[in-house]
Automatic annotation (TrEMBL):
Molecular function terms, GO-annotated: thiosulfate-cyanide sulfurtransferase activity
InterPro entries: Rhodanese-like_dom, Rhodanese-like_dom_sf, Thiosulfate_sulfurtransferase, Thiosulphate_STrfase_CS
Rhodanese domain boundaries: 15-123, 165-269
Source lineage: Archaea, Methanobacteriati, Methanobacteriota, Stenosarchaea group, Halobacteria
A Pfam family the protein falls into: Rhodanese
Key words of the record: Pyruvate, Repeat, Transferase
PANTHER family per the UniProt record, alphabetical: THIOSULFATE SULFURTRANSFERASE
Protein's organism: Halogranum gelatinilyticum
CDD domains: TST_Repeat_1
Family annotation (SUPFAM superfamilies): Rhodanese/Cell cycle control phosphatase (SSF52821)
Domain of life: Archaea
Signal peptide location: none
Protein name (record): Thiosulfate/3-mercaptopyruvate sulfurtransferase
Amino acid sequence: MYENLVVSADWLADHLDDVRVVDVRDAWEFDGIGHVPGAVSIPFDSFRSDVGDEGMLPGTAVWTDLMNEAGIDEDDTIVAYDDTHGVFAARFLVTAELYGHRDLHLLNGDFSAWSREHEVEREAREFPESEYAVRDPEHSPLVGYEYVLDAVDRVADADAAGDGAGDDVVIVDTREPEEYAESHVPGAVQLDWLELVDDDSRGLKPRAELESILADRGITPDKEVVLYCNTARRISHTYVVLRQLGYEHVAFYEGSLTEWQERGGPVEREA
């Protein structure tokens, strides 16, 4: 998944005949505003689990049905996009990775990056139904409550040592500063996922700037990075960015703060 993970609109234009493009915007946007030629519509709400379990995986049966209806095979090259800086498309890609899909890419700069320079299509194309086979992922970044609880202890031990000893893990809260101040996992550093996005292009900031922002928070490639938000949407984007930058040890706490608080996990607050 990680080679050339984030691709430009020009790259997509050059490879359009060789990839399957997935549009995760609402269906009315796909039809009314237009879409990348040859794209299939798989709206964000269709690959999330039911109410009461927001943000979690949809289940093998649901995922298989979605892929079959879209005519996507498990070995297809997929490029996903949305109109929200890539955060919803990133969640699609992480979901696909967890169901064993391996050739995955995010369109940098979302749909606007395409529509500014390339033609759009308004009629949906028909693709023959596929027989998608879910596989075990080559690597699963998913971690659970107990894993994060242990990471909290590791951060606390490193802080108590005072000399950086054992400081090999960083917990990252990808929500807005106000949310972080209200309640966060103890020892977590705050990094709003939008800090990694360029306002003008709607895509990622230049690599050097990304690395500087991350280093300022102590989020460096030599550490294990444990990501959380509220319902696993925002961490999906940060996860994709970190993997694009070559971070190898990235943990994805899908339950995030929703599960953490439901299970009585400790929290910190800021005045």
